[in-house]
Amino acid sequence: MFGRNLRFQRIIIACLSGLIFILAIQPIRAIGTWESRTPSIRAATVKSGATRLSQRRRFVMPSVGAPGNRSDAATRQECSVAGKFLTALVPPKDINFTRAARPTLWFYVPFSPSQNRSVELLLNDEAGNLFYKTQFPWNSKPGIIGIRLPESKTLEEGKRYQWMFSYICNPSSREEDDFRVSGSIERVLANSPYIANGLWYETLTELAQLQIQEPQNSAAVAEWRTLLKQVELPQLISEPVLREIN
Q1: Is 107 helix (H, G, I), strand (E, B) or coil?
Q2: In whole angstroms, what is the distance from residue 88 CA to residue 160 CA?
Q3: pLDDT greater than 60 at residue 68
Q4: I need a surface site. Which of 153, 183, 228, 239 has the fewest CB within 10 A?
Q5: Is 13 helix (H, G, I), strand (E, B) or coil?
Q6: Is 100 part of a structural domain of the chain?
Q7: Which domain holds residue 235?
């Protein structure tokens, strides 16, 4: 009788040991199963992002505004680049809208790095007073840059601002030798009817940032090209988006 009880106890202990072992390795198996599924999950995420990108509302150019000064095609003996011009990335008509308090303005600079050459961005308020100014040396290769307004300079809702972007070719003779483009920007109210048509600066900045962060994203590249063609800037499609300056 005693022997039978001892054998029965040994069987129970063996069963319990096996159960403990199975429970101990189960998390490891679960982790292995999760990691083996990770590539498919990542692929689904990328596919979802591409779908979302392709379904973005197309920007509709507003019917208001007159032709702006978005390109400087003049020649300067010291600075000109044949067939390429300083260009603001804006639609042909001047008035362009944003909801952002600190929008990013984008420009194509066709010039190579050169000593004593710089770029400058000015914004004036509706009264013509200087609202913001920044200037920095141009030490980049030719390409597209964005300049975002600093935290200390936020646009007021319902206000329109005039901006001017310059490439300073000769600091001692700016009036004659600067390349300049100019236009206006207005921060619209939350209930503005223009929001339904898409906001230029938000649309442009989102796609420009994707050109910097995900240059191999074919959907983003396709939308970037479509947008530039839509606003009649196909000559900039092949130009690199260099950086966004905050």
Answers
A1: strand
A2: 17
A3: yes
A4: 153
A5: helix
A6: yes
A7: 71-245
Q: DSSP code of 57?
A: P
d(CA 103, CA 131) in angstroms, rounded, equals: 14
Please write down the HEC assignment for all residues of 173-216.
Answer: CHHHHCEEEEEEEEECCCCCHHHHHCCHHHHHHHHHHHHHHCCC
In a domain, 150, yes or no: yes
Joined together, the tokens standing for residue 233 give 């800037």
pLDDT, tens digit (0-9, with 9 covering 90-100), for 177-217: 688 999 999 999 988 887 877 789 999 999 999 999 999 99
| pLDDT tens digit sequence for 118-151 | 999 999 999 999 999 999 999 999 999 999 999 9
Q: Tell me: the pLDDT tens digits for 2-45? A: 445 545 555 555 555 554 444 444 443 332 322 233 333 223 33
Provide the number of structural domains found in the chain: 1
Cβ-Cβ contacts under 8 Å for 231 (sequence gap 6 or more) = 61, 89, 90, 91, 92
Tokens of 74: 């003049």
Q: Around Cβ 51, how many Cβ atoms within 10 Å?
A: 10
CA gap 147, 150 in Å, rounded: 9
